[in-house]
């Protein structure tokens, strides 16, 4: 198969846009239309990357910055939200790479999410939800999955989101999503915003909180109306079983709002199997 761009792969995998990673020791994965490398997320065919917001439990900064350099982005603007840094950041070499480190305060305060937000030069953005930490081993040697959103344009000036005071405790979003400009039918945008805002209770440094707030604004000002999947998240800390900010609560809400599941079929009750990485996010 001739080499194709990431955008061409994206178009060929619609409407699901579910991808897997290319594994070094399995040559067949190189030519699969639904297989990509991390650096393919930076392909110019998807848009000219202006800045990135990445979350993971483990981050190898040296490996990560090398991915940007391979795609011609020598001075990447990256904000990394993480709990474990595997290699130290060379601040002199990468002045625009910012680390927002999440402290571990209890056994339930684990940050395992793998999320990417890529903002392009026209202020549009793309969201990536992945299973891989930001290091060479997980992206190149073991099977991983990721979902890539459509390109989400910036909302018109007269339809902007009104930003909350970042020091206020996050509110639970409107269940009908009626007051969220650029919302999707699944409530993806409001759930993503709620997830990002949940980190305000963990980040106490003013500069780090300001950086997080700037990324919340990018999401608030984007049009998510083309998104057709749900965003189910778990926030740091301890929660009641079905409360807001838990996997079970998010799954229950999504299924009750968007699925019609019969109680049984031929006398056999339906079962739903879900998987999460661990206790916590």
Please characterize this protein's 3D structure:
The structure is a single chain. With 281 residues, this protein is of the alpha/beta class. The chain is 21% helix and 19% strand. The chain has helices at 6-12, 61-70, 136-140, 188-197, 206-220, 247-258, and strands at residues 18-21, 35-36, 49-60, 78-87, 97-101, 115-120, 125-130, 145-148, 264-265, 268-269. The protein has an eight-stranded mixed beta sheet with strand order 2-1-8-7-6-3-4-5, with helices on both faces. A two-stranded antiparallel sheet has the order 9-10. Helix 2 (61-70) links the parallel strand 3 and strand 4. Helix 4 (188-197) runs antiparallel to helix 5 (206-220). Mean pLDDT is 83; it is low at 165-176.
How would the global form be characterised? Answer: globular
Number of strands: 10
Characterize the largest beta sheet: strand count, sense, and whether it forms a barrel: 8 strands, mixed
- Low-pLDDT segments, ≥5 res: 165-176
Question: What is the spatial order of strands in the main beta sheet?
Answer: 2-1-8-7-6-3-4-5
The helix-and-strand class reads alpha/beta
Mean pLDDT: 83
Provide the gyration radius in Å: 19 Å
Query: How far do the termini sit from each other?
Result: 38 Å
Helix content: 10-25%
**Binned strand content:** 15-25%
Note the total helix count.
6
Order of helical and strand elements: HEEEHEEEEHEHHHEE
